[in-house]
Amino acid sequence: MKAPQMRVPHPGPKTREQLERLGRYEAKAGLSSGMTPDTVMIERALGAEVEDVDGNVFLDFVSGFGSLNAGHCHPRVVEAVREQAGKLHQAMSLGSKVRLDLEEKVISLVGGAAPKKILFGASGGEAVETAIKLARRATGRQEIVGFTGGFHGRSLGALPFMGRKSQREGLGALVPGAHHVPYPYPYRNPFGRSPNDCVEGTIAYIEEFLKNPASGWGEVAAIMIEPVQGNGGMIPAPLGFLRALRELCDRYGVLFICDEVMSGFARTGRMFAYQHEEGVEPDLVVMGKSLSGGLPLSACVAKSEIADASPPGSETGTYAGNVLSCAAGLASIAVYEDENLADRAERMGGYFLERLGELAERHPVVGEVRGRGLMLAAELVSDRQTREPLPIAKEASEMAVKKGLFLYPGGHYKNVLAFMPPIVTDEAQIEAAVGIVDEILLELSEKG
Ligand SMILES: Cc1ncc(COP(=O)(O)O)c(C=O)c1O
Question: What is the DSSP string of 204-271?
Fold first, then answer.
């Protein structure tokens, strides 16, 4: 494979035929891109390259929404799954050596002074729900604070913390006790434009709600944050924010939940994104996606005293900690460590960001480029002065697919081109992706 390589215009004839059948059988709510032209029928994939049923080869800069940090079908992960499948592939939630080894490894990666315990799930949303339940039981309090633009999963228990209104509409009442405060988003920060204003203003704002008995909030169990907001537009919280938030939580006896589902496992240049700040130890860390290199597995790692406040068997399920996924997890983590993927994410991220910066010089619609490691974004605006959002990310991503590139349309205002390539991506692949984005921005500006 050598991407991008479009043998036929996308969607090709086999893709069209399969999409027609897909439309008949699968509800569009089940497909993340809906039944739009950017739906690709994938045949095989390797590293950062994906081949469809028509032989078109795409560059995948979405990485299965961040679940493939070591790339598609990494040989060591494939081998580990094959070997495990021949021995034992389902142990319910009973113990097994492979599960135990993964538990020990993940807890050591989270680190910190306090002893920790792990609870497994099958999806990120499930692990988020586990964290919320643990926090409620351990504190005896009900309310949880999330951030604007947040994304923590689509299950009913995670949905109250979804920033995007359209995802919550039509459902009626959700689990009560959820609050949203502004994400520390320097480019669109209500408290001033410098990162420092953003940190101080956001913390002061949250503190006002916590300390004022007439603020409208009740008893807060936990504050949950993505250290780099992913779906919201690849927004790294300014350095210093997590420490300030940790201290705020300590002052008010509130638990600190870090959602590392997308940012975890070397993606941002550290094993977990909160580790960019010295001495920040979350009470609960939620993870999924690249935990197991793309197989269904998630986890919530909690301080032991918090984990042990929940009764036996209350946070498990048939597939929680599935042994195939655990084997994939151990192999994936070995790849992240042996191939120094955290360092690589930092290096390649720096290179990619520089190239995006050059695009910003040529295209006035690019208001800001930003990111941490290989969670990167170009935010589009109709006016650089007013920063008026230009909500054309979906259109741009559909144009990108036709040219052989997957990118993620995100952002609070659907105006962000987000990039999350597998960390094994090389400079030539980044060049190719940047070239395609350059063409798209040119075509969009010609269209007006
Ligand atoms: C930060 C974050 N948390 C939670 C989730 C939910 O994970 P899942 O789709 O596995 O339920 C996602 C998914 O994109 C995510 O980005």
Answer: HHHHHHHH-TTSS---EEEEEE-SEESTTTSEEPPTTHHHHHHHHHHHHT-EEEEE-TTTTTTTTSSS
